[in-house]
Design goal:
elongated, 117 residues, binds zinc ion
């Protein structure tokens, strides 16, 4: 089932997905690989260990956030494909188009989202 509305969001979601993948690739192929960071950490004085730990946590958190974002985009695209896109997962109400434009991966109406947070 394809409507002009879902075409618009498919285009938007696909663009978001490509941006995100490009960002993840840029990070992975960045100037510092994890192996380099680990080698630096080994050379550090013990005082620096706590700081190094923080940096590792940060990069893991970043990847988790991006993985979650990718997951949200993929499941939105899946909902477009099965025709349930734009319906609140919780109460089934149609999510206003304005909200979807602002956040194409929105899974809940404003009401349910507010209750979930
Ligand atoms: Zn709802």
């Amino acid at each position: 089932m394809t409507t002009p509305i879902s075409d618009t969001f498919t285009t938007q979601l696909t663009a978001m997905r490509q941006d995100l993948l490009a960002r993840i690739r840029a990070q992975r192929g960045g100037t510092r690989s994890r192996a380099d960071a680990a080698a630096d950490a080994r050379d550090m004085a013990s005082d620096d260990w706590a700081k190094a730990g923080e940096e590792f946590d940060l990069s893991v958190a970043l990847e988790e956030r991006e993985a979650a974002e990718l997951q949200a985009i993929d499941s939105a695209l899946q909902r477009v494909a099965d025709g349930s896109y734009g319906l609140c997962l919780q109460c089934g109400t149609a999510i206003p188009t304005a909200r979807l434009h602002a956040q194409p991966t929105a899974e809940r109406c404003v009401h349910c989202q507010a209750r979930a947070e």
